[in-house]
């Protein structure tokens, strides 16, 4: 009986291909899981709403329904705006830090490649500018 074993030595190109394909497969798998559970949650809500209507009870609000009264809507808008500004600031600082780290790492190999670190650095600066503009626009709208 001949048993054929796969070689233990895998070239770098093969390993990179396997890793890329497994990353894509994981993305498809987890994306599919997310869609399945979203659909399941919607189906369960529809079933609950149908039973409530059959029994003459009020229909519960949908899980992702926006608030309908003006006070809750204004509070939600301010909260979303605050989260957006905070996200811009955090993203900008992280991109500037990544750009700085890349510059320091790449400058040791070749000064010409170190300028690629400017890409995430400038994206970080743009995100911080977006946060500043968002704050200024919010102040101008309140006056």
In short:
This protein is mostly helical and 143 residues long.
Would you kindly provide a written description of the structure presented here, covering whatever features stand out?
It contains 3 helices and no strands. It has helices at 12-54, 70-107, 118-142. The chain has 2 domains: 9-61; 69-143. Helix 2 runs antiparallel to helix 3 (118-142). It has 143 residues and is an all-alpha fold.
Q: What attributes characterize this protein structure?
A:
2 domains; mainly alpha; 0% strand; 143 residues; 3 helices
Major sheet description: none
The run of helices and strands is HHH
Strand content: under 5%
**Can you count the helices?**
3
Helical content band = over 70%
Which outline best applies? Answer: flat
**Distance, first to last CA:** 85 Å
**Roughly what is the average pLDDT, rounded to an integer?**
86
Number of strands: 0
**Unreliable segments of 5+ consecutive residues:** none
Supply the helix-strand structural class: mainly alpha
Computed Rg: 26 Å
Number of domains: 2
Q: SSE layout and pairings?
A:
Layout: H1 12-54, H2 70-107, H3 118-142
